[in-house]
Amino acid sequence: MTDVVMAYDRSSRLVADSSNSGHILELVPAAGGDAIDRPFFAGWVTRPKIVAQLLLAVAAVARSTYFRPITSQLLDPILTSGDGRLRIESFSSCCGVYARADVLPDGLENVTVGSGTTNVDFNQDVRDALSRIDDRVELRLSIGDEGLHVVTRGSTAFERRVKLPTRWIKGLGEAALAQLGMRPVATLDAPNARRLLAELPPAGGASAPPYTLARRERGLRFQQSAVAAAAVVAGPYRLRELVPLAAYATSLTVWARPEHGVRPCAFQVDLPGARMWLVLSPDVARGFSGEGAALEAMSDPSAVDRAAQLRPLLDWSAKLDETSLAQRAGVPVARVRALLAVLGGQGLVGRDLAGDAWFRRDLPFVADRVAKLQPRVRKAAQMGDADLVVKPIDGGHEVFVRSGEIAHRVVVHGEAARCTCQWSVRHSASRGPCRHILAARQFLARQAQDPA
């Protein structure tokens, strides 16, 4: 697996201030010029215990693996500041669970909020410090562009060099696209939210059938028998990191697309001054990084180039205005949505369900490298025009794509396409297009631009 290395110039530290009668836990940029005076986020949280639990929950998802029999990796949550709020994001090590917590403006006070994104090393010392916080402990967050080394009252811990796995970058985009079209299917009040989370089914094998969310009096329950029109949840035990937050929850909302069968779903927990989401992949054995929803946009070189031109126009509001972006970029709104999908695949924008909008995040890596890390995009680009033969058919095209000694038949009708390769037959359209479909579409696009 290839990693995208995120190297920062300076470190940061977490300090405990003994001059105050209480304890102050503070994430600040470390010494290095005047960096300590230039954090992009600095302020006090109004409910320290809740924010500490949110940070621990997102970090716990990053350390968890819900399917793959691999050693859990201590991966670093992503922190993004903008529009008066702080977003904390992570993926499980198996990449099948996306977590995000938002500390909202009414959960902060005396805050200076700039814009930026960084990774924070939530090592054992930081987690221990956060686990000891209650509402008698003052909590100040001050975050800069740098990675972190951590100093608490009784210990010091230094950050290792940060690596952001390719699976995370791809997963950030796929998880965002998975949320497109989701709608709230149920909302529970605080008692019933706690009841549902207290009754999570135990972990099962990857082949275990999914659960449905069945209605019961004033609430929901997980059951394995089919229920018409009910949300389908694969591996609901993957919601376990929400359980410690249940005591503070004011409501819980379940999100899903209005489709039948297994599909991604999301659970939103509202808390005083904050929200948290867990987005689950459609199958325990499926990580978001392999879903392939962004492949068509990522395989279009003109879209990748145009997305790079769109990126400087993104602001740091909680909701990116697609209409305004289209006007400033001089392109149709539909084109902006496709370009945002490209930026999502590069980890540069995310999706907010509550606002039904995109939001900006910045990661310090070379964006051009990400498209090359998509194996299907890379393999499709390696197929030359001599490997493809096109025949017009009624309403579309038939394209024979040579791959090794085999010529696969691709039929393209507008937005629909199918291929005879084994991968496409196995997954149909549920995991995005195969490399032969990508190559066929690219070839047809070139022919349309240059008929000669």
Element layout with pairings:
Layout: E1 3-6, E2 12-16, E3 24-29, E4 41-45, H1 48-63, E5 78-82, E6 85-91, E7 97-103, E8 108-113, E9 116-119, H2 124-131, E10 138-143, E11 150-151, E12 156-157, E13 162-165, H3 166-179, E14 183-189, H4 190-198, E15 211-216, E16 219-223, E17 232-233, E18 251-256, E19 265-271, E20 274-280, H5 295-298, H6 301-310, H7 322-329, H8 333-345, E21 349-352, E22 357-360, H9 368-372, H10 375-381, E23 388-393, E24 396-403, E25 406-413, E26 416-419, H11 422-427, H12 435-449
Parallel strand pairs: 3-10
Antiparallel strand pairs: 1-13, 2-3, 4-8, 4-10, 5-6, 5-9, 6-7, 7-20, 11-12, 14-18, 15-16, 15-17, 18-19, 19-20, 21-22, 23-24, 24-25, 25-26
Helix pairs in contact: 3-8, 6-8, 7-8, 10-12
What's the CATH architecture of the largest domain?
Answer: Roll
Please provide the count of β strands: 26
Cα shape: globular
Number of domains: 4
Q: pLDDT average, as an integer?
A: 78
Q: Give the CATH H-level superfamily of the largest domain.
A: DNA Polymerase III, subunit A, domain 2
What separation lies between the terminal Cα atoms?
41 Å
Helix content: 25-40%
Q: Strand order across the biggest sheet?
A: 9-5-6-7-20-19-18-14
Strand fraction equals 25-35%
- CATH topology assignment of the largest domain: DNA Polymerase III, Chain A, domain 2
Q: Which CATH class of the largest domain applies here?
A: Alpha Beta
Give me the number of helical elements.
Answer: 12
Structure class: alpha+beta
The value of Rg in angstroms is 23 Å
Low-pLDDT segments: 1-14, 18-22, 28-37, 147-161
Largest sheet: 8 strands, antiparallel
